[in-house]
Each structure stands twice: as structure tokens, then as C-alpha cells.
Design goal:
Elements: E1 5-7, E2 10-11, E3 25-32, E4 35-43, E5 51-53, H1 63-67, E6 71-76, E7 82-94, E8 100-109, E9 116-118, H2 120-123, E10 127-132, E11 139-144, H3 146-155, H4 167-176
Length: about 180
Amino acid sequence: MDTGRSELEKAANPATKAFNRESYFTKISFDISNKTVKITAKIDTGATYTVIGLEHKGLIRFKDEIQKSSMRGIAYDASGTELKLYGYVVENFRLTDEIILDKIKLFFSEDIGSKALLGMDILSLFDFQYLKEKRQNYGTFWINNYDEALKDLQARRLNKDTDYIDPILIADVEDRV
């Protein structure tokens, strides 16, 4: 097993079907009610949260279940528009082939349609970097030292009663240190 780094799978922009250096999309997946949902998400280092649109075709059948979640909140997009968020714990969250989190809280919203953003709540759990490719018009996102980060996440699960990773709680603790 390579413990050095793991590459986020590069995916085409779902709207334009193109690859370019202005935006980077990756494929993620997770399970809800023992069903795997596959999503193409934009990596957005300016987004505080990972937010997945409830209008995504793979989520339509789970929309009511997610919206009944007691974990609700709000966030604001880059233009200052309020987004209603539903926090929901998913299983087997796959960031890369090597990075799979058994249970993690993600945010979902009707307000972004079928779009998905992979934000800093998850990215900041890891040592990530972007490397521009010389002969291409885009680069590659890497997660470095992922094996150590995964061990650290398991050791630091903050909410033992619910046994899931809550990226926001981890960030809050790190901010206080």
C-alpha cells in the first residue's frame, strides 16, 4: 500500500463536459440506506462546507429522509445568497480509492439544484495540494500522507455517542488550539 499520496479522480464539468484549469471536478460516492450514490463534485477551496444538491438524480429517492434530519443550518454562497442546509450522516464516503470514511456528516441543499461542492470542511481534514500539469490545461489534486490523516481522524472522533466524523466539530476544536 502506498502511504504517500492519493489522487482525487479528475472528472469533467457535468454542465460543459469539459476539463479546464478554472475548475476541478472529482468523483465521490457514499451510501444512504445501503444504496450507493455517485456524485461529480466541484472542488471548491472557497466553500466552507461540502454541499450536495438534493435535486441530483441519485438523491431524489432520499430527499424526504434527508430533509427530516434534525441537523439543519444555513450557509451563504459567494454572492451572499442564503442556502438552507440539511446535515445528514452517510456511510462509506469515498474521496479516493484509498480514502474511504465509514460514517461522516455531509450537507445537502435544495438551493443548489443538482450541483455538488467538495468544500474545506472535508478537504482541511487532509494535507492536500494542487499540481499543475505542464502539458495540459489543468492540474491534479493530491491528498498527501493520507494514512496518517485517517488514523488521526479515527482517534479523534469527537462525538462517540453517534460514532460518525463531523468535520465541523473537528475544525472547531482545531481553531481553539
